[in-house]
Amino acid sequence: MPLRPLVLLTTLLHAYIGLRLLPALAGLPLAWPLLGSALLVSAVTMPLPFVGMRSRRRQFADVWKWIGLISMGWFSSLLVLTVVRDAGLLLGWLGASVSGVTLDGARWQLWSAAGVPLMASATSLVGLLNARRTAGVVRIDVPIRDLPSALSGFTIAQLSDIHVGPTIKRGYIQRIVNAVNGLGADMIAITGDLVDGTVAELRDHIAPLQQLKARHGTFVVTGNHEYYAGAHAWIDELRRLGLRVLLNEHVVLQTRNVKGAQTDEEVLESALLVAGVTDYTAGHFDAAHASDPHGALADAPPLVHTRVLLAHQPRSAPEAAEAGYHLQLSGHTHGGQFFPWNLFVPLQQPFTAGLHKLHEMWVYTSRGTGYWGPPKRFGAPSEITLLRLLRA
Q: Which Pfam families match (predicted)?
């Protein structure tokens, strides 16, 4: 959306909040000026991330973005809670009218108006702390029928939706890398939305990813934000760092000692096929990058039975299940990141977070290892996922 209409819209929404809350707070002498000042600061600073992007004074750009994004997170909760308050007051009035009960309307309006900014501020503070901490490790066992014994216990460390950009920098990435390396995973999967900016802007901040260590390496697929930021340049940069970017293609990982195998068939049956597809929407940006779970299996050895797909968006799952994968690893949803956006994810995606089964295929949807936009996570903690394959 262009900047001017966006500023007009957010200004009108701030005015709506002010009109609904400030008159009710007249009975609390300090509350009215505090909330009025906070609304004014929020309305002025929310456009700053967009202004900062156009600024040539780089030393101020990140500060502007931080202020604007924190305001955005607070305003988002404030707006939702104001709407909920209005709905609650309306239902209370209707209920009282029908039942004949007399309510102290002024008192209800006063304390509900005071509660809205307090709750918005509390959730924003907790959300900020949750977003800025190093993501915790979530351990998931995935039972796969007829899994070869050589693959039982195979581990995959999944990172997703880190969104290196305005508020996520090198130090944040370094902490994630250190945590992942401490897991000793057999392979590492990065399932898209790694960056929010160009290679020139973020090259130094993304550099710690070259320190990732796993027996079979690190594999990456593109998310929609890579295409916003210049996917081709990022693909080249990630490959330069030693990461394997899978663009509708696959690799076969040999998990047992080939010298100890009796036959070629035994070697292939104990292998793991890892495929990766471009983002579900990639074809809108580059027709040559149209996501293709079937095409990612082209020329796959038929004796390699166990197949894992890396696909940024969960909605790749129906086609992946049809193609015969056993497990799909995805992200994109952030688990909703913070209320109430988790309620809207199912309108676009089949899964919001966690392990689910679609026909004969498992789908694991990460809540994300970073965050997007406001530095805020509430009710949807970030995660580094360690998945372990087990025989069902």
A: Metallophos
